[in-house]
Amino acid sequence: MKIAFFDSGIGGLSVLHHAMRVLPKEQFVFYADEDNVPYGVKTTDEVKGFVQQAFDFLVGCDVKAIVVACNTATSVAVREMRHRYDIPIIGMEPAAKKALDLDGEHRVLVAATPITVHGKKMQILIDRFDKDHLVDLLPLPRLVEFAEREEFRSEAVHAYLAQELGRFHLADYSALVLGCTHFNYFKDTMREIMPENMHFVDGNEGTVRELIRQLDARHELEDLPQTVDYYYSGRRVEDPAELARIARYLKRLDFVYDIR
């Protein structure tokens, strides 16, 4: 049986990319809801509907687990999906706790989509772990649009990030939490703007580690040739141009993978 990864668009490829490295003998399904991206500026009810459609499709594919490789979808709908479906469902959590644990003295900046930044789940997370009030939040809605256009190193991207990150005195911060899976594509540009004392933290490693833990507990880890089937909003991706596009994103992720 295969492992499904679901995202509003191609951001979730960053989670799949890590999983492909550490699970070389698993087979995967990747579902990008390209018809409805971006989720981060939609209403909560709209996102819940999109997630429900995706889950109905993926469960019909007889997958053994679903990784919600989208912080926005996790924030809005993952709890409800866990009540509806009897398979492991692993969500993305902004890695604010991890960032605080790594330092504990300097401030932490969490970048995410507007719906994640303003959502109840984020507030609960901060109330639980940010006892010293060290976390600040930064919505970056345009990064999703840039990523979906494969626009990673343009003057517009640099200007946007410089403006938004420039709202904060970054020398006071130890970490930038990438609270949206689309944001990993921009680590090189962000690195140019951030001071040396800041480092990146994301939830990809922890999410895949939890996936492995749950599958191991169920004795469902495989020993098969690695494959990936790609779907856009339920349609199998077979067009060579689209498969080449996905390959370019994965190559980009190879490039930024070790940027800290």
TrEMBL record:
It catalyses: L-glutamate = D-glutamate. One of its GO terms (molecular function) is glutamate racemase activity. The lineage of its organism: Bacteria, Bacillati, Bacillota, Negativicutes, Selenomonadales. It is an enzyme of class 5 (isomerase). Signal peptide: none annotated. The active site is at C70, C180. PROSITE patterns: ASP_GLU_RACEMASE_1. GO terms for biological process: cell wall organization; peptidoglycan biosynthetic process; regulation of cell shape. This is Glutamate racemase. Belongs to the aspartate/glutamate racemases family. Its EC number is 5.1.1.3. The keyword Repeat does not apply. Substrate binds at D7, S8, Y39, G40, N71, T72, T181, H182. Pathway: Cell wall biogenesis; peptidoglycan biosynthesis. Keywords: Cell shape, Cell wall biogenesis/degradation, Isomerase, Peptidoglycan synthesis. InterPro entries: Asp/Glu/hydantoin_racemase (IPR015942), Asp/Glu_race (IPR001920), Asp/Glu_racemase_AS_1 (IPR018187), Glu_race (IPR004391). Pfam families: Asp_Glu_race. It comes from the Bacteria. Provides the (R)-glutamate required for cell wall biosynthesis. The gene is murI.
